[in-house]
Amino acid sequence: MKARAFDYARPASVAEALTAFEQADGDASYIAGGQSLVPALALRLQAPARLVDIAHIAELRGIAVEEGWLRLGALTRHVELHDHPLVATHAPLLALAAPHVAHPAIRNRGTLGGSVALADPAAEFPAMLLAMDAEMEITGPEGSRRVPAGDFFQDLYQTALEPGELLVALHIPAAGPGHRCAFDEIARRRGDYALAGCGVMLTMPGDIVDEARIACLAVGSTPLRARAAEAALIGRRLDPDSIRKAQSALADDLDPPDDAEVPAAMRLHLARVLLGRLLGGMAEAA
Amino acid sequence: MSSALPVTLTVNGETLTRLVEPRETLADFLRRDLGLTGTHAGCEMGVCGACLVMLDGAPVHACLTFAVQADGAEIATVEGLTENGVLADLQHAFHQRNALQCGFCTPGMLVSAQGLLARTALPSRAEIRDALSGNYCRCTGYEAIVDAIETVARRRAAGETAAPFMEEPA
Amino acid sequence: MNAPLGSLDRPNSYIGRSVPRPNAKRLLAGRGRYVTDLVLPRMLHAAFLRSPYAHARIASIDTEAARAMPGVRLVATGADLAGLCTPWTGTLDHFKGMKSAPQLPLPLEEVLWSGQAVVAVVADSRAQAEDAAEAILVEFEELPPVTDIDAARTPGADRAASGIEDNLCFRTRLDTGGLDAIFAGAAHVVEEEFHFGRHTAVTLEPRAILADWDAGEGKLTVHHATQTPYQFQDLYSRHFGIAEASVRVIAPDIGGSFGMKLHVYHEDMAVIGLALMCRRPVKYVADRMESFVSDIHARDHRVRARMAVDAEGTILAMDVDDVTAIGAFSTYPRTSAVEGNQVVRLMGAPYRFRNYRAELSVVFQNKVQTSQYRAVGHPVACAVTERMVDLAAARAGLDPVAMREKNLIPDEAYPCDSPTGYKFEALSHQACLAKLKALIEYDALRAEQAALRARGIHRGIGIASFVEISNPSPAFYGIGGARISAQDGATLSITPSGEVRCLISVTEQGQGTETIIGQIVADQLGVAREKVRVVTGDTETTPHGGATWACRGAGIGGETALQAARRLRDNVLALAAAILQASPGQLDLRDGRIVDAMGGAERISLAEVARIAYFRSDTLPPDTNAQLSITHHYAPQGYPFAFTNGVQGCHVELDTDTGLVKILRHWVVEDCGRIINPLLVDEQVRGGVVQGLGAAFFEECRYDAGGQLTNGSLADYLVPMACEMPDIVVGHVETPTADTVLGAKGCGEAGTAAASAAALNAVNDAMAPLGGRIAQIPMTPARLLKSLGKI
């Protein structure tokens, strides 16, 4: 299990990175933490001629709140999402999901940008960014743009990133004390890819759900926003009846893959169980 | 297309420069180029934990990092962490509790344990098991490892220091 | 607790003491020396091109491009190696009618499973060898894969290999007679169809071999991650035509084995041939992806079972049909039939019933070869038996513990035999069950279970009694014609400084072999443990022996060491007596000193005796026979096997909405006879339990209908990890075997033997009020949700 040979570039800036990528005639990969890419290289499932190591580009770092948005540099490591007070305050879903992402040593090295760019439908962070209406800041040879999470995740491992484009940062509308969040997932073993996962973010100024955002993972070819389930809650009390309706509505939201080991019906069932438990817990806490 | 590149990094306190092929993982670099065979390769895809080393003070998989990426980094392996005494109390507790059998997972377990105790002074048994969630052991059944780490957490919290590990009598 | 061989108060009384392993310290410091770590001058690396098809004909092989790749030293095909290595066939004579196709290191015309090595590349680095393997062009013509055990046995079915006339490797039948009448007349009959998934050993260090051929001396040295260096010395000698004394096999530190590393693998035989061809050291380390498609698999049984019970709950009879799927040939030299044979013979072993019928069919498939892995056959026999006992108990209206109390063979009924032909010397099922019942506070646990059920929390308690095979005599393999030794040998020496060297044939894989041998030698000789150096794992230095498998290290290796130490002690005392002009009977050896046996006063140190023997033999009386080195061999001569026994309890909580099971706690009470080192025994048991729980909930090699392994990576094949495993309480009953002085039996299989059975019963117990029922392991969330009717 040794990777095919490649050459290696370590640019110091985004501009240099774009150039280094371009010089490889499209046969390159960016590498940051490499926690998903290196196994793919070792298995020879991927074999780019060049790796462009973006881990040392200062512009891709940093955690800050700017004008109501939390900016997370693409190089933000999973462990920082777990630990950083600004993340806990303004993007609590990421902080809640972080302990479920793989294992401690992976979290020490894996980056948020890497996870988002890979867009594994079973990954936690992409789904939570979708729930939080995050925007992806992308830079490429043609310039920079911001893509809403809803447009970013397009299909299985397919994103809005064009070849050579670089994910620079994630921008998340900063949550405040009025946002209640819950996350959980069901996995065979701690740190495994989930059979189903779910994050919920609610605002409930009084008894009534004012805003509901629900995103699920491992139940489709992309992370999925559960709009029908959200609609079942908005404007209603969080009670057994509304929760049941939200669970039921998930059938319209999700498109679980079907395989011999985990049938589609099971993933839908598990997502419903999770959503019910999360909402039930939030109702109890309210 | 893939000529060797010079890499300068600090390994177990010593700064060194070597020419490496970009495709060589840090695990292979430590084992093959530096002879630090205490870092083990069990899966080469980041799921068994046998190759964990400290990179800039935090546990990472040496099989999920190419050596060229570690240019400028500070690496500590089980050999270095033994020589500087950082692991002495853990090694002592693992030995007394027989928290290892074949020993192949052990360096990774020690690095995980050290990483946990650096973050959490007095972890619960559940937290210890959680911290080991990426460290596979086929021999022990884990309980003895959890016991040993729990013992060391208590001792460290009580301010106890350990004698150098290898110099103790058997 | 532990009845010591002598007083634990005397000096050097190490048998029965928990002492840490001296050889563990270097492993903790990262100074282990595994085959994967070894580097020899001018060493080359091998990699293999593997078959993508489960069954295919090799139409052509083009290696030209690969030979021209950077660093490539050799590309070898099956034809290249066939001239160096004679074929092997994995059958045993005492398995009547058994058949298997002969095997060569690399195939000539036909590939038999997906992942089979087809062409070998030797290069300066492993990466270069892999690069070149990618450049080899092999044209395969697909043949129909055999992957279904029923279709495989229909007349005219496609054959898994062209060298066999049909897909039945071996069939055997046991019948005590009259079963149909007993079942017809029984008050209750319960039946079930069980499915046991394929497992594999997943040692953390993969298989590794480094072969070095010295053409000048005609000597082959093989550094081999194996449990059984002597077996491989014999095999390499015979199959490559090299004199046995010119083959040296060294097994250094081994990163886990569990039975997996004692079988012949095609790649290993190929590497010997590659080293002969290259005349340079050649190393091969299976990477993890290769491990999953080339390490032996195990289990893979479908068992249909019936049990007849009378109105009072007394078990009358069992009737089982076991069909087990192996590879396309039988593994060499231990075969792929031993597991099934042990399944049908261990079935029902703890119980009193005398009426038994079993049919075993061992069926070829185009999948990875199967063979012995930890607790061979035990988990299957135990799970079937114990689940049937629970089903029968429920039908008869008895509590599972009461059912077992009623039906287990009473401890005072031994010696006795089983309806399957096993002879039991002395087992302690009733004592173990009583101890387990107290340990788990069974009645309180049942009360808690009932209270929690009322609140919608579904917990289950599972009990499983077991019998374990240990200390095998030549009845295991020797009578079948295999050159697998049932005896062990030890060479013990007093060094000129009065220290002790013990070279012994049993080997170390971390279970503590060297530690317990050191304890026994020090104890029996009368020296401090620190003065004994134990050497294992090198055919050039240690006497020939069976080494480590089937739980024989403590029982046979330990007895060898004990007898050797006693002989050497007699020699030392005789020599000391000559020096002291005393009678040997008046002297004793304690803590490295020759003392008066009566008063304990020191007469002369062992070091001084050794100094005189080695350097001043001129001062000894002329007829003195100073033999401070002895070699001693021991083979079991009494019972064919030393059976052990025990019982396990498992407590689980089932999440009925998700199908996830939390294992709350697990208990084991086991009887391995004399315990030499309680610390090591307990950890053997715990590690074994976790392998059994892995099988119960996680581990399964999944194949599609085309014979492709669909989860062959460590990310997809789920091994048990720390978070999901419980704390495990271990208790003991000690019934030493009277066949040896030491009285030790094995403990390595005990944990694995019954853990999955206890878990199966526990999960069924949790599901019982909900109408769910499962008879398949692993018990995955999908299977549990299905049995609960949730999906």
Short description:
With 170 residues, chain B is α+β, with helices and mostly antiparallel strands.
Structural write-up:
The complex is a heterotrimer of chains A (about 290), B (about 170) and C (about 800). Chain A contains twelve helices and 14 strands. Chain A is an alpha+beta fold and about 290 residues long. Chain A folds into three domains: about 45 residues, Uridine Diphospho-n-acetylenolpyruvylglucosamine Reductase, domain 2 (2-Layer Sandwich), CATH 3.30.43; about 120 residues, 2-Layer Sandwich (Uridine Diphospho-n-acetylenolpyruvylglucosamine Reductase, domain 3); about 110 residues, CO dehydrogenase flavoprotein, C-terminal domain (Enolase-like, domain 1), CATH 3.30.390. Chain A is globular and about 60 Å long. Chain B is built from six helices and five strands, in the order E-E-H-E-E-E-H-H-H-H-H. Chain B is α+β, with helices and mostly antiparallel strands and about 170 residues long. Chain B folds into two domains: about 80 residues, Ubiquitin-like (UB roll) (Roll), CATH 3.10.20.30; about 70 residues, Orthogonal Bundle (DNA polymerase, domain 1), CATH 1.10.150. Chain C folds into three domains: about 160 residues, Aldehyde oxidase/xanthine dehydrogenase, molybdopterin binding domain (Aldehyde Oxidoreductase, domain 4), CATH 3.30.365.10; about 200 residues, Aldehyde Oxidoreductase, domain 3; about 250 residues, Aldehyde oxidase/xanthine dehydrogenase, molybdopterin binding domain (Aldehyde Oxidoreductase, domain 4). In chain C, strands 3-5-1-12-9-10-11 form a seven-stranded mixed sheet, sandwiched between helices. Chain C has a six-stranded mixed sheet with strand order 7-15-14-13-8-29, sandwiched between helices. Chain C is globular and about 85 Å long. Chain C starts with about 25 loop residues before the first helix and ends with a helix. At the B-C interface, helix 2, helix 3, helix 4, helix 5 and helix 6 of B face helix 1 and helix 17 of C. Chain C: Pfam families: Ald_Xan_dh_C, MoCoBD_1, MoCoBD_2.
